[in-house]
Amino acid sequence: MTNLGGSKMSQHKQIRIALNNCGVIDPENIKEYIARDGYLALGKCLTEMKPEDIIREIKDSGLRGRGGGGFPAGLKWEIAAKNQADQKYVVCNADEGDPGAFMDRSILEGDPHAVLEAMAICGYSMGATKGLIYIRAEYPLAIERLKIAIEQAREFGLLGKNLFGTDFEFDIEIRYGAGAFVCGEETALIHSMEGLRGEPTIKPPYPAESGYFGKPTNVNNVETYANVPIILRKGANWFNKIGTEKSKGTKVFALAGKIKNVGLVEVPMGTTLREVIYEIGGGIENDKKFKAVQTGGPSGGCLTEKHLDTPIDFDNLVQAGSMMGSGGMIVMDEDNCMVSVAKFYLEFTVEESCGKCSPCRIGNKRLYELLDRITQGKGEMEDLKRLRNMSNVIKDTSLCGLGQTSPNPVLSTLDNFYDEYVAHVVDKKCIAGQCKDLMTYFVIEENCVGCTACARVCPVGAITGEKKEVHYINPEICIKCGACEERCKFDAIIVK
Amino acid sequence: MNKIKLTIDNKQIEVEKGTTIYKAAKELGIYIPVLCYMNLEGLNIENKPGGCRICVVEVEGRNNLAPSCSTDVWEGMVVNTHSMRVINARRTVMEFILSDHPKDCLTCAKSGNCDLQDMAVKLGVREIPGQEYAEMSTYKIDFSPSIIRDLDKCIMCRRCEMMCNDFQTVGALSAFNRGFEAAVGPAFEMELEDSTCTYCGQCVAVCPTGALTEKDHTRDVINALSDPTKKVVVQTAPAVRAALGEEFGMEPGTLVTGKMVSALRRLGFDYVFDTDFAADLTIMEEGTELLDRLTKYLGGDKEVKLPILTSCCPAWVSFFEHYFPEMKDIPSTARSPQQMFGAIAKTYFADKISTKREDLVVVSIMPCLAKKYEAQRDEFKVDGNPDVDFSISTRELAHLIKEANLDLNILPDEDFDKPLGESSGAGVIFGTTGGVIEAAVRTAYELHTGKKLEKLDFEQLRGFEAIRKATVDFDGTPINIGIAHGLGHARKLLDEIKAGKSEFHAIEIMACPGGCIGGGGQPLHHSDTSILKARAEAIYREDAGKPIRKSHENPYILKLYEEFLGKPMSEKSHHLLHTAYFDKSRKIEIS
Amino acid sequence: MEEKSMSDIKVKVKEKDLIKIQEICKSFDNKPGELINVLHKTQEHFGYLPAEIQEVVAQELDVAVAKVYGVVTFYSFFTMLPKGKFPISICTGTACYVRGADNVLQEFKRQLNIEVGETTDDGKYSLNCLRCVGACGLAPVVLVGDKTYGRVSPEGVKEILEEYQEK
To answer: Is residue B64 included in any domain, yes or no?
Structure first.
């Protein structure tokens, strides 16, 4: 079901690096990958380059981790390389748990060998002979294709012993996630691979020092690895010319929501949100008004009109109150209530919190409860202050990246849509018309013909009125199911 | 250079590399509040999940606050432990924790002795904003024979989980569920009684809240004492006298033997006896068993089981029944002192005072929670009547004494009643790790060699090291002795035996850190292990001051054999003072 | 004292199930570190992970059963309840949410008269939410077994269920 944008998606402004082969080659045939210079980089590394040269090349390229925080990949490799041990591990984080993001899945389904090749290169550069791919069990096709790819790579002598006639050996195993968003955090991921509860631990020690079963371990995500072979083929200087000063290369986004063209886009760092949403995504569907764009998933924030011309890169998004995250990009229109959006993300965080540290375990629950009350019209102005304080403390005190970023949807909507919060709290109104508790159904007298259709469909008997007379909806009884509005053929029922 | 210079609250300090901010601050006399963090110094037990986030501090150049318990210092670090940002964060986090915690402090077993309560006071929490609509996580309360679990009060500090798994290797407890619903308990939220729990009580000893408490039997004791048709006998374990004073504000290590006796008498017990008497009796039986096996072994008997393992500790007994059932014929068959006492009290002593078994109530004061369970084991009952009716902890006794308006500080010293109140110094040292085997050696040596021991203090058997080894010369025969406290350490010795690699003739095992002095029923040490050491010293002091220091020289023990039992390992002894063990491993059966 | 059996903790399991679990554990060399892989395989075979199966896994891998339970209850993929013949999963990822997945979910709950995580009395349907299946272009998305339904509206729920009525 890989949706790479379809025919409608404009290729204008896009550059394909990570998605280079996706949709172009048959991912189940290693020969097609090889035909597009696949495994050339690995061969070059093993026969012509020293481990430190590879690390320098990756460092020079400016490649930063595509999974969330944007830590420089070369630096990570270097630390893992410097830590001596009898066994080291290369781990690929394919536990894409961000709701609304599916670029890792697409890469694994469309170009699995790029990841395998990159892991072998990483292994050679840091002195590891074992690779592990931690993938969501919910991605059966990606798993299947990875298995085929690993098998074929072994057959072709591209995994296993004596690669390219050298002493170097490297092989890869697949490990399955089991449905825990927090396992995207690298220490939690490692615990999960060890057969434990996926709870994060305090860093340091970093996995590069003490990771999988206490051994130096390098963890990068799928998209990060997918950039590696091409960097080594075309050179750091080719790669670092793309992008902005501190964010090099491209980023894949999963464009979704109220947008005309949904799907994956890969754009150079520094492209503006406006370019992505309007030029590539074709603008808002049904010609509604753009309201916000959410980036970074549950860790990110909602950006508005004023951010549309901000060049997208790691640092600019953080500055704007959001983050790159793994690359989810959800567009919202005027029908989306921003308090509800914040609540939606908090509901997710509450469900996905591992429960280890108290601010994330309890604090997020309290944030959610407060947001829920606001959407029910039970909020007070004092609550908005509490929301902010709780959010700040949760960010400030949580153990891992999950809790440290989970209040971002709240803080960014408080910053950018404060009036909407106030409307819920003071006027008890939801401008977007999404909060059922704040809506009232009315009969427009001049349109009502008294056909009684609405009264008959009302499940709770809230509508009264004689035949051919104007009907009345009792707000005390009405459960706001909307059945009457749908049934009325005369546009006589509206909701406000 | 492995030294690191840093600044904490404008004060400079130099510490070893690898020191945490918390420890560095402590060296400066700055006590950062901690909740989940626990360090039992000298016992190699440290719990630092970094979960509660109460100990956060501000570190210059760091975006978020740092958990001081688990953040190492670095060169030039500048720390502020009490900026307003920190104070606000701590208080808000505390409000979070309390918003999911019942507010029944008035009747909570931990009230007045609760780390969480103290922290709420310290952090100035006066209200929980939004409490009226805050959902609370709730669970079923679990009543086991020894321990009550009320997970509504669990704050996920993970101390119990760490003790149960890492220290004891029992594995009865684990974190389960995720997020807001997460708590710590047995598999499938089953009751402790259905799990492999040994009731060692170390989870209770470290729990900072009322989530884990002892099953309280003080009401049963009050009822027995109020019943005019009953004669009530009390026995006090050796470790109790070395710790009870702490509950009354005395310095750790204060011996309160005489005051305790006088308090018990004032509470209305008809006879105040000493478990130490039964400890001497245990040595007679266990020591004889040891010599018996040893003699056979030295005589070339290949069938005899060695090493012999002590069997005084009920948590340890449960442990091998659960995990090493195939080795259940290795431990001594001698019952524990508590049960020997009960059996003798309800036969020999009941006869002496012409009281029927049913009319005699035996109460034990124990540093231990497993003793509650042990007292209820079927094999220690006669026609449903238990040898020991109620076992209460040192903490419960302190409550009873306070409830009776007695102040231990000003009570006079009194002596135990006779005949079951007389004991030797050997009986006293049962209360600390290494004590049982030292007591056994004192007797076994003299019985084996027929010579008098020159020096009674076996320093090589003492101390707090997890596993200790010593060789005692039995007049030309070297006897190898092993000692372990903590079931995880015991497991190592058992694995050696299982593998046929054990070098020992005799091994003493105690489940709790430091032995009974660190038992789950003792006054809470609140992570201060110097208290355990002070208690151990007090025990050895009591021994040193005793006129009789060898069990086989206790005149009342000799009289008991003469009048009633005959000789050690006699048929009567076998019936009253020995027991058998059972396979309690989890069994998978085909249905 | 007479020897009696006090082994009061017994776990009953069918012989063929026991053999199957042992087989799975053995295929992972009975390594404790493979617990999650073992649970995946076991759930794949049995459909769910009831207590007695966890007990066997614990024993085979030499892991405390409390720890096995701790792992099973941590990951949302593992379930201790049997799923329905036709497991219905509603994607509640962001894209689906924005396009009204919640209303679809409510409609399934209403029609089946069960809550999320439950199975209908006849064992036919079970209802679950899952996070982004990566079909955001089709949002809101519903899965019945392996079959995907895209752009589902509350009105479409009845139609989907009717497809399975006779099966």
So the answer is: yes
Domain's final residue, options B36, B51, B82: B82
Domain hosting A287: range is 250-333
CATH number, domain with residue C95: 3.40.30.10
Q: Answer yes or no: is pLDDT of A3 > 50.
A: no
Mutate to test the interface with A, among C131, C133, C143 (most CBs of A within 10 A): C131
Non-local CB neighbours of C115 within 8 Å, separated by 6+ positions:
C109, C127
Which among A265, A172, A281 is positioned nearest to A225, based on CA atoms?
A172
Name the token pair of B176: 């389960």
pLDDT higher than threshold 60 for residue C8? no
Taking the C-alpha atoms of residue C164 and residue C167, their distance in angstroms, rounded to an integer, is: 5
**Above 90 in pLDDT, residue C83?**
no
Tell me: cis bond preceding B307? Omega within 30 of 0 counts.
Answer: yes
Q: What is the C-alpha to C-alpha distance for residues C77 and B506, in angstroms, rounded to an integer?
A: 50
Q: How far apart are CA A141 and CA B506, in angstroms?
A: 61
Q: Are residues C115 and C52 in the same domain?
A: no
Query: SS3 for A12?
Result: coil
Range of the domain at C52: 15-72
Bridge partners (DSSP) of residue A311 are: A272
Contacts of B154 in chain A (CB under 8 A): none
Residue B88 inside a domain? The answer is no
User: How far A435 CA lies from chain C's nearest CA (Å)?
Assistant: 13
**Do A225 and A289 sit in the same domain of this protein?**
no
| Chain A residues whose beta carbon lies within 8 Å of the beta carbon of residue B155 | 358
Three-state secondary structure along A18-58? Answer: CCCCCCCCCCCCHHHHHHCCCCHHHHHHHHHCCHHHHHHHH
C-beta separation of B324 from B498 below 8 A: yes
Within a domain: residue A15?
no
Q: Is residue C103 part of a domain?
A: yes
Token pair listed for B227:
């019943």
Going by pLDDT thresholds of 50, 70 and 90, the confidence category of residue C7 is: very low
H or E segment and range at residue B590: strand B587-590
Q: Can you tell me the ipTM of this complex?
A: 0.94
Q: What is the pLDDT of residues A179-189, one digit of tens each?
A: 999 999 999 99
Please answer whether residues B347 and B500 qualify as being in contact, where contact means their C-beta atoms are separated by less than 8 angstroms. no
Residue C78 lies in a domain: no
Please name the chains neighbouring A, where neighbouring means 3+ C-beta pairs under 8 angstroms.
Answer: B, C
| Spatial separation of the C-alpha atoms in residues A416 and B360, rounded to whole Å | 77
Please state, in angstroms and rounded to a whole number, the distance separating the CA atoms of residues C11 and C6. Answer: 14
* Residue B440 pLDDT grade (very low, low, confident, very high; cuts 50, 70, 90): very high
Taking each helix axis as running N to C, give the angle between helix A364-375 and helix A381-397, from 0 to 180 degrees, rounded to the nearest 10: 160
Count the domains in chain C: 2
- Whether residue A404 is found in the same domain as residue A265: no
pLDDT digits (tens, 9 = 90+) for B166-195: 999 999 999 999 999 999 999 999 999 999
What is the pLDDT averaged over residues B472-495? 94
Residues A136 and A171 in one domain: yes
Q: What are the helix (H) ranges across A289-400?
A: 314-319, 338-352, 358, 364-375, 381-397
**Total structural domains within chain A:** 4
Within 8 A by CB and 6+ apart from A487, the residues are A453, A454, A457
pLDDT of residue C3: 36
Residues A358 and A465 placed together within one structural domain of the fold? no
A356 vs B92: CB contact, 8 Å cut-off? no
**Structural domain of B103:** 96-214
Residue C159 lies in a domain: yes
**Nearest-angstrom CA–CA distance, A245 and A234:** 19
Instruction: Identify the closest residue of chain A to C31 by CA–CA distance.
Output: A195
Nearest residue to B263 via CA among B230, B295, B240, B239: B240
Number of H helices, E strands in chain A: 21, 13
CA A251/CA A272 separation, integer angstroms? 12
